[in-house]
Design a protein that fits this description.
The complex is a heterotrimer of chains A (about 325), B (about 250) and C (about 290). Helix content of chain B is about 35%, strand content about 25%. With about 250 residues, chain B is α/β, with parallel strands linked by helices. In chain B, helix 3 (about 95-110) packs across helix 4 and helix 3 runs parallel beside helix 5. Chain C is an all-alpha fold.
Amino acid sequence: MSARMPYLGLLLVLVLAPWIIPIIGDSFWLSVLTEIIIWSCFAASINFLFGYVGLLSFGQALFFGFGMYGVALGISAFQLSFWPAFFLGPFSATVMALITGIFAVRLTWHYFAIITVVFSLIFYFLALTLKSVTGGDDGINFSMPDLFNLLGYKLSLTNTTTQYLFTLSVVVLCFWLIKVVMASAYGRSLIAIRDNDVRASLIGINVYRLRLSAFVIAGFLAGVSGSLFALFGRYASASYMFYHVSGEGVVWAIVGGVGTLLGPAIGTGIFILIREIVSTHWQHHALIVGAFAICIVIFAPEGIVGLWKKLRHRPRS
Amino acid sequence: MKPFLRIEHLSKSFGGVKAVNDLSLSLFPNRINAIIGPNGAGKTTLFNLITGFIKPDSGKIFFDDVELTHLPIHAISLMGIKRTLQIKSVFNSMTVYENLWITLSAQQGNLNPFKPIARYPDIQNRVEEVIEQLDLGRFQNTPAGALSYGDVALLEIGMAIITKPKMILFDEPVCGMSPAETEKVVSKITALAAQTHIVIIEHDMDVVFKMADEIAVLAFGTKLASGTPQEIGSNQQVKEVYFGTDEVDT
Amino acid sequence: MSQTIIALAINGIVFGLIVALIALGLSIIFGLLDIINLSHGDFFMVGTVIAYTTLATLGHFWPALLIAPLIGFALGALIQFSIIQRIKNNAALSIVATFGLSMIIQEVVRMTFGAAPKRIMPPISGTFGMFGIEYEWYRIFAAIASIIAIGSFFIFLKSTKLGVWMRAVRHDRDTATTMGIPTQQIYLFTFGIGFAMAAIGGVIAAPITTVDFRTGVDILPFCFMAVIIGGLGNLPGTVAAAVLLAFLEGVISGFATPTIARIFSLVLMSSVLLIRPQGLFKGLTK
């Protein structure tokens, strides 16, 4: 039970944030925290593939984009109400992950990484071409349908606290799902594939099929992230499908700690916080962020969570 | 008596070199079969062909009359055919316990992502049984990557037997082991022969002649001779292929 | 119409040769140091900025062809010494480190050079008649300069002691070290050369592209694709792939928008990766 305490403690703090933050600072930081949580899910999708399966995807922005546009177009073009649109986002991302995964998962390592970039670029440029639909790099805006409207009692994501709690619930659910999946025989099979794919097939694991299923799960996670993002800003833009976005996610996941549950959240959190904190004082925050990434790589190569674990298990002198 | 493994006119070339050349071989049950031959004779290639690592250019492979020739690796494994590798290879980040656990789980085809690992008592019991059998208890919680070479080999054997397979292919099971470790492995494998078809590739002639009931000699990708250790030991052709025309000790 | 296609096709070849030069730098960095260099496109961009700055301060373009590789080499060696060396050939960490480096390089350029894109005039002006179109002299120069640079690189690799050492380290790092080759210095040198080559590419390209702190981002995927499609470790293959891809894209953009041409070449790349992942040109070199 004591192993669960840090998680529960963290969860408690996060749930109470909308009331804690205004006390210690500007409520603008609640929006920042919301953003961090949204992008943590994105980093988690990358970490799921890289940390647990050993596949480095540089194209998760593709599924993020489908999640994003699924919601945005669902609401603006198909006039869907909240829940159907919120279903369409991750659903289209998952379908896309299945279709691209069938091809991508036939490759490994560098070739896999490159083909994920290629696929995501194809759809990025397609999104640019279909500017009338997607709005290209400028994007499209839409207005938010209510989350919940019963007998005059309304819940809408236009309320910052509602938005925060909704986002938190969804992402915590996703992280919990990852935890459960990785504690199953399926999860252990993924790790076997990561460690030694030859041995894995020798013991009877269908490596291709398992990799494909993991790719689909990761696509789903990235899609959820994209959907939440669209709901957050009431906005979708093709520029979020560019490979640079995928690259950022990879960096967050690695810095946080590959193959750990909370690593992606911590990595994302640190980078976004640095960006926000520094940019209020100095416009050249990119220098700090870049330097930070380099320092982590040199001084904490196993990531922040890895460093934390190492420090905790340091033998007493 | 019917052979459990039937290889018919198997051929495989790698860029012009015929690693396996029109090889035909039948292996019969209730005995330990050994495959020997000088380096490059095609022994490991044969194992790779049987287990599905590579596909032959021509020929067929039958196990219990079921054709294996074009099946994928995992399908062949699930049929009950397990092997150890020449260069010992296990799941390094997992403990010995977890390595054994996943091997049995894979055979059972457990893929439910929502059922926690702790809820498989039958796997747990069998894993503990094998750990007991192979005396792996001391490091059951050590990551496999931290084990010594001899212990990894023992783990591999554990992984080969845990699913109670129909056939195990041992590729140089005592390579790089101390005499004590060799002794241990030889007795374990011999004990297995009662319930499982055993095929061994081995270079150590002492081990081969002590363990094997039936020996097949490969040279240049094809079968040179087969028979009891006695017959092989006095076979002139075999001696030539190994030692030129000098005597071989039996 | 067909004349425009010819112009676009030749533009493609010219562009492909420049990319080939840059991609070669990327390839040797990956081949020798196991580093996935996400800042390589920015090395190119730095080259374009050096070209602009040389022209602006000295009034002449040509010195940039010498200044850029020198600065590039020095910067590359410095980066390798201070950062890359500590990563010890770990591909995943190199992604993070070079990503951070890329952010720093872009921001430094943005701070000093400014955020507004600028253009420079080609140092060789004028056009000539070719295949019924008027074609810029400078682009022909660009192609020739790239060919000379690429050629010199291959001669260097083949015939100089340093080049042979580089090839040895790429082939088998451990054996090379045991043979007494100073691998640490070779790493320094390789990264320096990689930066220098990208920088020269930047100088050559500057008059026919925009000088902007973001141009590295666009060119990076192209370079990676040339390296992978050409075949990992296959240097001539990288050159061939870069030229082929740019040529195809150029031709297709005669029939459709550049974006659609880009999509087309990307689809082509996926097919190559799926059918023949070891690259198109594997059998063509030793």
